[in-house]
Design a protein that fits this description.
single chain; alpha/beta; two-stranded antiparallel sheet; Rossmann fold; about 260 residues; 7-stranded mixed sheet; about 40% helix
């Protein structure tokens, strides 16, 4: 699809499949809409729309003040009737925000490794993640974006060593590091009030929480905290998978999404 204005931002989007059920998928930070291709190919029941977040893929750059809010508004612009909502990482936190705000618009909700770190507040894992975020902030302030990207990819990437990434990819990741910090405001402090009293409890659609067995330890704490408040939820752990499981373990992720679709 061509780039068009969505919620005030030049946004690229594409559609996978032609199934009877409309769906929207929101990718993770540093990825793009094409990351959903492997999953979408295994879900013939869906017509799945995916967009590139600002500063990602073919969408325009971002110069706002509320990254999580801007991505949420872009995503909301694609919802014209109840649909199946799927999100990964930062995209999963956006999907959860949408489901809390408008539960009537969600037919099913699949959250793959939602990085809503504040859900694990009070745990050692949260303290460690907060410290990592401050180190990233300090590296960017010192002008060392590539080293910041190296560390971030090492923790949250697909497992490929930094040195084996091509120069263009390394440069792109380094340039996108400010977006990681911008999105982190909602992730660490819940500025979007996703976890407000009664919010998660108001989601009456079936929810599937998916995480990788080899992902950073905080993911287990986040998923447990969120699942404890949802009225209709399943939790799945994919063996051998890390944080980028929609790309590295697309068949397993697609099977779990399909299972969640069947619950509605």
């Amino acid at each position: 699809m061509p780039i068009e204005m969505r919620a005030g931002h030049p946004t690229f989007w594409q559609v996978f499949g032609a199934g009877a059920r409309p769906a929207l998928a929101i990718h993770c930070t540093l990825a793009h809409s094409g990351a959903w291709a492997g999953v979408a190919a295994r879900l013939p029941e869906l017509t799945l729309t995916a967009f590139d977040m600002p500063g990602h893929g073919q969408s325009g750059s971002w110069a706002g003040s509320d990254y999580h809010g801007d991505v949420t508004r872009i995503a909301a612009s694609f919802i014209t009737r109840p649909l199946d909502l799927i999100g990964h990482s930062f995209g999963a936190s956006v999907a959860l925000r949408l489901a809390v705000a408008a539960p009537e618009a969600i037919r099913s909700l699949t959250l793959i490794e939602p990085v809503l770190f504040v859900a694990a507040a009070g745990t050692p894992e949260f303290a460690a993640q907060l410290a990592d975020n401050e180190r990233l902030r300090a590296m960017l302030a010192a002008g060392d974006a590539e080293e910041a990207a190296r560390g971030f990819i090492g923790q949250w990437g697909a497992g490929q060593p930094w040195r084996k990434l091509d120069a263009r990819t390394r440069t792109t990741f380094a340039a996108q590091m400010p977006l990681v910090l911008a999105g982190g405001e909602a992730s660490f402090a819940d500025t979007a009030r996703i976890l407000r009293e009664g919010g998660l409890e108001g989601i009456d659609a079936p929810v599937m929480l998916i995480r990788g067995a080899e992902s950073p330890p905080i993911m287990a704490s986040i998923c447990e905290a969120i699942a404890a408040r949802l009225p209709d939820v399943g939790v799945a752990v994919v063996p051998g998978a890390g944080h980028m499981l929609p790309v590295t373990h697309a068949p397993q992720v697609a099977d779990l999404i399909s299972l969640n679709l069947s619950r509605e």
